[in-house]
Amino acid sequence: MRKIISFMHISLDGFVAGPNGEMNWITVDEELFDHVGKRISGTDTALYGRVTYQMMEGYWPTAADSPDASKHDLEHSAWYKKAHKLVISETLQQADLTDTTIISNNFATRINEIKQQEGTEILLFGSPTATHSLIQQNLIDGYWLFVNPVILGQGIPLFKDIKDRIKLNLLATQQFSNGVVELNYAVADK
C-alpha cells in the first residue's frame, strides 16, 4: 500500500505559514535542496490542495526555462513535469490538466483507492487546509517536517482540530548548517 507523507516546513512553534499565508520565514539553501531533492526524485506522485497546486503550477512547469535557473530549479522542474499530481479541490475543474487528477468529492474514498494502486509514496506538499482534512480522515501515514529556527507567535498551524491522539515513531533526524532540523515520523498505528 502506498503511503501519504506530509512534507512541510514549520516554525518552532508549529506554524506552517504566517497569519496571511506568508512563508518568507522559511530557510532554504543548496544543502537543504539537495537533501530534499534526493528523496523527491524517488517519488512519482505529489498531492496538493488547490491553492498550493495553483502556486506550484504557476512556477514549476517553466522554472527551468529561465536563463538564470538554479540547480534546484532545473531538477525540481524536471521532477514536477513528470510527477503525477493529485489535487484536492471542490472548485478546480479537470479540463486539460497534464498528469493531474482532481479529487473533488468523496476524497477519503478516492485517496484510499489511490493508495491501493501501484507507485511510490505520495508526498503531500504544503497545503495546510488539505493536510488538516487528511489528518481528520486518518489518511496521513507520516510527517517529513523541516523545523525552521523561528518562532512566529501566530499563523496557520500544522495541527488543527485534532480529535484523537496520533502516536508517531521517529524514523530519522538531520540538522542542517542553516539551523533547520529535519524530523521524519511514521504514524505508529498504520
Describe this structure as you would to a colleague.
The chain contains five helices and ten strands; from the N terminus they run E-E-H-E-H-H-E-E-H-E-H-E-E-E-E. The longest helix is centred in the middle third of the chain and has 12 residues, at 71-82. Strands 5-4-3-6-1-7-10-9 form an eight-stranded mixed sheet, with helices on both faces. Strands 2-8 form a two-stranded antiparallel sheet. Helices cover 26% and strands 28% of the residues. Helix 1 packs parallel to helix 3. The model has no long low-confidence stretch (mean pLDDT 92). The protein has one domain (4-187): Dihydrofolate Reductase, subunit A, CATH 3.40.430. It is α/β, with parallel strands linked by helices and 190 residues long. Strand 9 and strand 10 form a beta hairpin. Pfam families: RibD_C. InterPro entries: DHFR-like_dom_sf, RibDG_C, Riboflavin_Biosynth_HTPR. This is Dihydrofolate reductase. It comes from Pedobacter soli. One of its GO terms (molecular function) is 5-amino-6-(5-phosphoribosylamino)uracil reductase activity.
